[in-house]
Amino acid sequence: MSPTFSAPDGTRLAYRIHGDGRPVVCLPGGPTDSRYLGDLGGLPAHRQVIFLDLRGTGKSAIPEDTSTYRCDRLVDDVEALRVHLGLTQLDLLGHSAGANLATQYAARCPKRVSKLALIAPSTRAVGIAITGETRRHLAQLRVGEPWFPSAFAALEAITEGEGSDWEAIAPFFYGRWDTAAQQHHVASQPDNQQAVALFASEGAFAPEATRAALAAYEGPVLLLAGEFDLNSPPQSVAEFAGLFRDATLVVQPGAGHYPWLDDADRFAATTAAFLG
Predict the structure, then answer these.
(1) Angle made by CA atoms 210, 192, 83, in degrees to the nearest 5
(2) Is 179 within a domain?
């Protein structure tokens, strides 16, 4: 049974603990059940890893007030988890959309974050736009794949606003579109569409204020991008890295949006070395 704690509004939130040592709190993307993160390539062999199920996902309760699904409102849940764990500071890891939450927490509570790891991060919270041309160029790196023609056609249609076959472009988000990747894709789909829809609703992000706060953040930051990741292209993640005083940018070769699946040992070694 997953341990739980109470959010400020009384919603019961669940988390999982793997490994021993100094904890690092992991914020999933989606928002969806944190189990899609697996064990982050074996990271719990190096550190204690605490996986939070965001409200309305995984084993966490659905809130009475659904406006609390908004990303900026979720910052209060992260702070409540820190207090619950009795930690003065957090090492914080955010994946994909979870990076929006991690950066907003660091912007609001900079003294509470000792180290910040942003894995295949979404850039919405800091207002970095990713163009269709950037994604097309990155997609062309996969031209030799057997699935490329149909996937690229679907990507072109989506980019032009004339299509919505998101399933067809799924292979672009993995370094290898093998059985493991296909199973992961199915298992990682969000089951609370309301939480997804309201996460980025109006008011969720204030990019200029967040950028200003992050420029003053003094802790070290890791930004890890997958070489082939259409969601978080290396070019955009590099721009994100430029917002921090002390940032390390790593582009993992051959990786997509879930780099711990594409090369678990490399991912865990890189992340563990940063976290210390």
Answers:
(1) 50
(2) no
Per-residue pLDDT band for 1 (boundaries 50, 70, 90) equals confident
| Domain tally, the chain | 1
pLDDT at 163 (0 to 100):
85
What would the two tokens of residue 21 be? 């040592």
Element (H, E) at 88: none
* CATH for 212: 3.40.50.1820
Amino acid found at 227 = E
Angle at 258 between CA 68 and CA 156, to 5 degrees: 90
Phi, psi of 269 (to 5 degrees): -65, -45
Residue 141 belongs to some domain of the structure: no
Does some domain include residue 139? Answer: no
* H helices present in the chain, as ranges: 71-85, 98-108, 132-139, 148-159, 179-187, 193-199, 207-216, 234-241, 259-262, 264-275
Is residue 166 in some structural domain? no
pLDDT digits (tens, 9 = 90+) for 206-248: 999 999 999 999 999 999 999 999 999 999 999 999 999 999 9
Classify residue 134 by burial, with Cβ atoms within 10 Å: 0-12, 13-18, 19+. middle
Q: Length of the chain, please?
A: 276
**Which residue type occupies 123?**
T
Q: How many CA atoms lie within 13 A of 14 on its CB side?
A: 15
pLDDT in tens, 185-211: 999 999 899 999 999 999 999 999 999
Distance CA 49, CA 39 (A): 8
Structural domain of residue 11, as residue ranges? 4-127+195-275
Strand partners, 117: 93, 222
For 45-81, how does the pLDDT look when each residue is reduced to its tens digit (9 = 90+)? 999 999 999 999 999 999 999 999 999 999 999 999 9
